[in-house]
Write a structure and sequence with these properties.
globular; 3-stranded antiparallel beta sheet
Length: 163
């Protein structure tokens, strides 16, 4: 017997796919420039480290608004790509993250790409009747009135499959 597949309906999937396509375009620019091992998702952290100097994973996570766990995984991937190195911090439990010489040599180009990307996004938003930045702000206001958790929990409380 077949069951209904609720994943056939997704309000967020089109946005995730759009962002993935845009990230793929940025990655293609890196490939065209001969920059190997760099992912668009690394750029903010690399620019932050260049601008602020070595940071602990906790400090870097706070600077880019990510969880410690997510940043720890990303730092491991960036280390494997030869973009950062880690050294023991002030106490043995923390690690300082710093740019490698290779990453330092790329930061000027990454900063230029960041500016170009932001300008291209502003251009795209100017073409829309309702820019994504406004949608995000409106969503944040709505979630301040009632959290996503509470909205989901209320529906689950009425769903017999959840009980």
């Amino acid at each position: 017997m077949k069951h209904d597949d609720p994943t056939e309906i997704s309000h967020w999937r089109p946005l995730r796919l759009l962002q993935a396509r845009m990230d793929d375009d940025i990655a293609r620019l890196y490939a065209e420039a001969g920059i190997d091992g760099l992912k668009p998702s690394y750029v903010m952290e690399l620019i932050k480290l260049h601008a602020h100097g070595p940071m602990t994973i906790k400090e870097l996570a706070a600077a880019v608004r990510r969880s410690h766990s997510a940043l720890s995984q990303k730092v491991a991937a960036m280390r494997k790509a030869g973009l950062v190195e880690t050294v023991t911090g002030a106490d043995a439990r923390s690690k300082q993250v710093m740019l490698t010489e290779r990453a330092e040599g790329l930061v000027g180009r990454l900063t230029a790409e960041w500016r170009a990307t932001e300008a291209a996004l502003a251009e795209l938003e100017a073409e829309l009747p309702y820019p994504l930045a406004r949608v995000v702000a409106d969503l944040e206001e709505a979630l301040a009135r009632r959290s996503f958790h509470d909205r989901i929990a209320d529906r689950l409380a009425r769903d017999p499959d959840w009980r």
